[in-house]
Write a structure and sequence with these properties.
This protein is of the alpha+beta class. The chain has 14 helices and 24 strands. The chain binds iron/sulfur cluster (SF4) and FE2/S2 (inorganic) cluster. The site of iron/sulfur cluster (SF4) has 12 residues, from α4.
């Protein structure tokens, strides 16, 4: 492979790679603002300029290129020698930083971007300690540019990443550069606010605090946030995300780069779709129909009573049925099916309703918004298919409930971000009198009052597991926060029921996604789960830099 030398290090490169790309691949830091791997290269910020020496094609002698070259735009060449830390390169970095800060308000203490701002970071590394600018700074306005995005114009460094995003990735072109020189600013076209389905990605790619998230505004300093790697838990995209949280509270979701799945982006739907996790009315303790509500101190009793009732009714049933929601993980589906089939090998297995909205939508930048609003319909089908030949889809399950009086005990799971129970479903359940209904769910629905036993489940952010996305890709995710109050993950609930039903598992066995996957692979021929590696706190989780201590 051809080689280039950057700051004394000999590095291999592939044809077409730029100096900056090779440097970043080898963790050599070159400051950059306008370059983003997902966007076209414009080389307008000029901070990445470096001294480049290249072999003369005629003599083969190494010669310095007379002017500094933009490393983001300059292709690597065999034998090139690059210095990003030479006096000339450093002088340029300092000059660019001074220029960018001339009209900047330097209001870091009140800026949401503080702590993750490239201007702030580079200012420490490459900037001057004090400003030589004595004149009055030009003030630029704050603008409300869309449903989710605020623009603080005077913090903008005109890198144009946001403009290129709306032109190249979404193809919607809402943003533009208006004006000239020091008065240049980003704006929306009149009557065309930034409201496309991917709009909030401009907040992530803005290297400074100019584009900010209305939802996160002044909510939390970023150094208090722990970032847990996860997977989209509300649509079939399988988008790689990072759940950012502090003391059990989620504050925001961000995309994680996966060039094969979501590249650098997520939809606004995924970004803001987690709010149901902290809804006040979350189910938080088991409920037994006809009995007084359990108090907080009675949680162990509540679970023991709920489990005994469910297990007794499932065992006594002529033909039990299990409905596994496509919102649950593959591990949840596996353990629930293991329990239900252990109780009665004739148990009817079915997949819960798979919500959809519109059609899949592809954007010019190669990103797809999926119409299917459940993360794991394929994974649930894959797992249940190992337990029974005939796994019913939801409509067929409703029909079976209407016609088959032998189905007399139901174990149902929900875990949807909004109400999922249709009047038709409750009618189908009550088509045969006296059916026992056990419900594992997270939010109250019409079924909560109808169910004989309700057990509070945990959302995907509160447990670990695996989802299979719309393209059949299996991806493991880690638990970000503890389950709310007394809620339990569905895998744990299933393990507790398996223990009660006399399974080999010792009582109090804790659910652990990776060991469940190993069991799935060895005992049920689901070998594809063996190789999945769950990102854990030791591997990929980024801990908060600081903890807030109340005095
Ligand atoms: S608003 Fe942010 S992303 Fe857009 S040009 Fe300004 S600095 Fe760049
Ligand atoms: S990153 Fe190279 S000019 Fe902006």
């Amino acid at each position: 492979m051809p080689k280039i030398t950057i700051n004394g290090r000999d590095l291999e490169f592939e044809k077409g790679q730029t100096i900056l790309q090779v440097a970043l691949d080898h963790e050599i830091e070159i400051p950059h603002y306008c370059y983003h791997p997902g966007l076209s290269i414009v080389a307008n910020c000029r901070i990445c300029l470096a001294e480049v020496h290249a072999p003369n094609p005629k003599t083969g002698e190494l010669e310095a290129i007379p002017k500094l070259m933009p490393t983001c735009q300059t292709a690597c060449g065999e034998g090139q020698v690059v210095y990003t830390d030479s006096p000339k390169s450093i002088a340029n970095q300092k000059a660019v930083m001074e220029y960018l800060l001339i009209n900047h308000p330097v209001d870091c203490p009140v800026c949401d971007q503080a702590g993750e701002c490239h201007l702030q970071d580079y200012s420490y590394q490459y900037g001057r300690s004090e400003s030589r600018f004595q004149e009055e700074k030009i003030k630029q306005p704050k603008k409300d540019v869309g449903h989710h995005v605020l623009l603080y114009s005077d913090r903008c460094i005109m890198c144009t990443r946001c403009v290129r995003f709306t032109r190249e990735i979404t193809g919607t072109g809402e943003l533009m550069v208006e004006g000239r020189g020091a008065k240049e600013q980003i704006d929306i076209f009149p009557g065309l606010p930034l409201n496309n389905e991917l709009s909030a990605n401009v907040i992530d790619i803005c290297p400074v605090g100019a584009l900010l998230d209305k939802d996160f505004l002044f909510q939390q300093r970023v150094w208090f946030l722990t970032k847990t790697p996860s997977i989209d838990g509300i649509t079939a995209s399988g988008d790689n995300i990072s759940i950012e949280h502090n003391k059990g509270v989620i504050y925001r979701l961000k995309p994680r780069t996966n060039v094969d799945v979501n590249k650098w982006w997520i939809t606004d739907e995924v970004r803001y779709g987690w709010k149901f996790i902290h809804r006040e009315d979350r189910l938080r303790l088991p409920i037994i129909k006809g009995e007084d509500a359990f108090s907080d101190g009675e949680a162990p009793l509540a679970y023991a009573t709920a489990y005994e009732t469910v297990n007794e009714k499932m065992r006594a049933a002529k033909r039990p049925a299990l409905l596994v929601s496509p919102m649950l993980s593959c591990e949840d589906a596996y353990l629930l099916a293991s329990y239900a089939m252990g109780v009665n090998p004739q148990t009817v297995l079915a997949v819960g309703p798979v919500p959809t909205s519109g059609q899949d939508k592809s954007f010019p930048g190669g990103f797809t918004l999926y119409a299917e609003k459940a993360p794991n319909a394929r994974g649930v089908r894959r797992v249940l298919g190992k337990f029974a030949k005939n796994v019913l889809e939801f409509s067929a399950f409703e029909e079976a409930l209407k016609k088959d009086a032998a189905i007399d005990a139901l174990l149902l799971t929900g875990n949807y971000p909004s109400d999922w129970v249709t009047p038709g479903f409750t009618q189908a359940i009550d088509a045969q009198r006296g059916r026992f209904v056990a419900l594992i769910d997270t939010l109250p629905t019409a079924l909560t009052a109808r169910a004989d036993v309700v057990i509070p489940g945990a959302t995907w952010a509160e447990k670990s597991g695996t989802f299979e996305n719309a393209k059949g890709r299996l991806q493991a995710f880690a638990r970000a926060i503890e389950p709310r109050d007394y809620c339990k993950g569905e895998s744990q609930i299933a393990l507790d029921l398996i223990s009660l039903n006399g399974g080999e598992d010792a009582p109090n066995r804790r659910s652990d996604a990776s060991s469940i996957r190993a069991q799935m692979a060895s005992e049920h021929g689901l070998s594809e789960f063996a190789a999945l590696v769950e990102p854990t706190s030791h591997e990929e989780e980024v801990q908060a830099d600081m903890e807030l201590v109340e005095l």
